[in-house]
Amino acid sequence: MTETNTPIVDYTIRLADDSLTLGHRLSEWCSNGPFLEEDIALINVSLDYVGRARMLYAYAAETENQGRSEDDICYLRDTREYRNLLINELPKGDFAFTIVRQFFVDTFNLLFYTELLNSKDSTLAAIAGKSIKETKYHLRRSKDWMVRLGDGTEESHNRCQAAIDELWDYVTEMFDMDELETGLAAQGVAVDRTALREQWQQIVKEVTDEATLTLPDHDIAIRGGRTGIHTEHLGYLLAELQYVQRAYPGNTW
Amino acid sequence: MSNMPLFEVFVRSKRGLDHTHCGSLHAENAEQALEYARDVYTRRSEGVSIWVVKASDVTASQESDRDSFYDPMDDKPYRHATHYVLPDEVNNM
Asked: Which of A30, A35, A36, A37 is best to mutate for the B interface (most B CBs within 10 A)?
């Protein structure tokens, strides 16, 4: 039993899982960045994502009101109970892979949170307001790097192109709607993801053109995150993320 | 990365104050330097405005010029307001 009885709680946990898994992947660059300044910048972005996840988990815990804390939701669920989109859990890869994923997700987030700002749920709308400011900066960075790498050396171009080709199959899942989200969208709470695809494609195309990169024209979609069917990578991510709580249950700072 | 130019970073902490030198960083160009300056030097919301200047564009005085630059000022006390006897009417100086 993973779903709660409240659609808004489930929806909020989905968004939190998206932020947490990607934030964790970015945090893996800490002390491993290509150079000091970029290391610090990447971790700043990571902290924005983890901070967003915290706000969302806290809201979910409060709304659910079943005695679970934000930490319980984060640390005490296993892979099948996580609801993040697959694109967020893929290993960090090389720097090009990290940048292409950020660019895809940042672009999506800008569109998504701009819409969520109109949510009838005032807490989600407030979180969206904070997230948009962060995302604008994230996108500025990832866009800049896309052009720098794509239109850089032969090696940076090839690595970037390889990352696009690998990530492309995970893009469609970002725009999937299911019963839960369609229902909440009809109430004016959730965002209609499907409606964001065209604009996303347009922004991404503009930047990849400038970066002399090519977008695949097939539309294969690997999906499953929203129903708890994940890649083999999420288990390892959670093993590290949840280690302390699993080894020392209930331990606090 | 050592092949990238060095930039000096100046941050204005509050409106009305001057930009103050707070450090340096490496970046590919000025725009990127500005972004890194934001991430490296304003993490605790220290600033309202940032300047970045290529370190190679700064012309600096040299330690060896010390004597000729600064010593001649040592024997010109009349350049300090405190050198003069103030009229009683001036209370605060």
From this structure: A37
Is the separation of the CB atoms in A183 and A191 below 8 Å? no
**Cα(A167)–Cα(A87) distance, rounded to whole angstroms?**
7
Tokens representing A99?
């940048």
B55: its two tokens:
């370190």
Contact A233, A81 (CB under 8 A): no
Could you give the angle at the alpha carbon of A13 between the alpha carbons of A7 and A15, nearest 5°?
105
Answer for the pair A215, A204: CB distance below 8 angstroms, yes or no. yes
pTM, two decimal places = 0.89
Per the CB < 8 A criterion, the answer to whether B24 and B8 are in contact is yes
In chain B, domain spans: 1-57
Å between B42 CA and nearest CA of chain A: 11
CB atoms within 10 A of CB B71: 9
Fold of B1-57: Ubiquitin-like (UB roll) (3.10.20)
Residues facing B68 on adjacent strands: none
Question: Under CATH, which architecture does the A7-247 domain have?
Answer: Up-down Bundle (1.20)
pLDDT in tens, A121-173: 999 999 999 999 999 999 999 999 999 999 999 999 999 999 999 999 999 99
* Least Cα separation, residue A62 to chain B (angstroms): 29
Between CA A106 and CA A136 the distance in angstroms is: 8
Instruction: Report domain extents, chain A.
Output: 7-247
Task: Please tell me the distance from the alpha carbon of residue B25 to that of residue B35, in angstroms, as a whole number.
Answer: 11
Q: Which one, of A69, A58, A66, lies nearest residue A16 by Cα?
A: A58
